[in-house]
Specification:
The chain contains 10 helices and 12 strands. The protein is of the alpha/beta class. The protein has 2 domains: 116 residues, Leucine Dehydrogenase, chain A, domain 1 (Rossmann fold), CATH 3.40.50; 144 residues, NAD(P)-binding Rossmann-like Domain (Rossmann fold, 3-Layer(aba) Sandwich), CATH 3.40.50. The strands form 2 sheets. The chain has a 6-stranded mixed β-sheet, sandwiched between helices. It has a 6-stranded parallel β-sheet with strand order 9-8-7-10-11-12, sandwiched between helices. The longest helix is centred in the last third of the chain and has 17 residues.
């Protein structure tokens, strides 16, 4: 599948790194533009008339999901989309947030329960058993739901946590320290730091055991330098991954869907 014109809809999006990432990934061989506008219907109509595929960001993700003629399996699992592509059967929705975090989870899964160097990049889970890996999802907005679905798709044990507890399957933030201590992997999706982060003690970082943290927010991360220094002192095997990696991985998987060609991940990383 090959397309020639792509873009991003949402508002505001002038700050978006997507055009630079796309250009780097394909050395400028495809067009990628910002389709700025407050009105979803107007932006969506531009997509139908002028573009082969679009990324979708806030506040249009739910509206875009409702427009799709075909849902990919990950969209059905998450109930949201951030990528639409024209096909011969109609507009198909994908979720590259899901695909990006799944890519990261596959990388770190082989290191859970081992002392493997984080600089080594395993091509598989190195014989680990995903069902024995516990993942704490903090914040259940669009990114959090995608992360939870991605972890479950790998057979991992998922604990959901949110400010608002909507059902018995969701833990309250009051349980954060207990759940943080027990989890092998923490995916933090709340856009601001919750006060309890300052209350984490050395033992909560599970000294002597690998622990992996992925944060969605790359602009104003809640895991600041002070907290990360505390974590490293308590547990040198603990590793933090900032939101730019999630952004990079979701962009790479999404752009592959657009073009049918894998983008240059190294060039894209240089943009960040």
């Amino acid at each position: 599948m090959k397309h020639c014109r792509f873009g991003l809809i949402g508002h505001p999006i002038a700050h978006s790194l997507s055009p630079a990432l796309f250009k780097a990934g394909y050395e400028g061989r495809y067009h990628y533009e910002l389709i700025e506008g407050e009105d979803f219907e107007e932006s969506y109509q531009k997509f139908l008339e002028e573009y082969d595929g679009i990324n979708v960001t806030a506040p249009f993700k739910e509206l875009a999901f409702s427009k799709a003629d075909i849902l990919s399996p990950e969209c059905e699992a998450v109930g949201a989309t951030n990528l639409l592509v024209k096909t011969h059967q109609g507009v198909k929705a994908f979720n590259s947030d899901f695909l990006g975090v799944r890519m990261w989870l596959e990388e770190v899964a082989g290191k859970v329960g081992s002392s493997i160097s984080y600089t080594d990049r395993p091509s598989s889970t190195n014989g680990s058993h995903p069902e024995n890996i516990s993942v704490l999802i903090v914040g259940l907005g669009g990114a959090g739901k995608a992360a939870a679905a991605a972890a479950e798709s790998l057979g991992m044990e998922v604990v959901r946590m949110n400010r608002t507890v909507r059902d018995e399957m969701t833990r309250p933030l009051d349980d954060f320290i207990e759940c943080f201590r027990e989890a092998d992997i923490i995916i933090y999706n709340i856009p601001a730091a919750i006060p309890v982060l300052c209350e984490l003690t050395d033992s909560d970082f599970t000294p002597g055991k690998p622990k992996f943290i992925l944060e969605a927010n790359y602009k104003n991360p809640s895991f600041d330098k002070t907290l990360l220094a505390k974590m490293q002192a308590a547990n040198p095997l603990a590793r933090y991954t900032g939101g730019k990696i999630w952004l990079l991985y979701q962009a790479a998987t999404g752009y592959d869907i657009f073009t049918g060609e894998k983008p240059d991940l190294g060039r894209m990383a240089d943009v960040l």
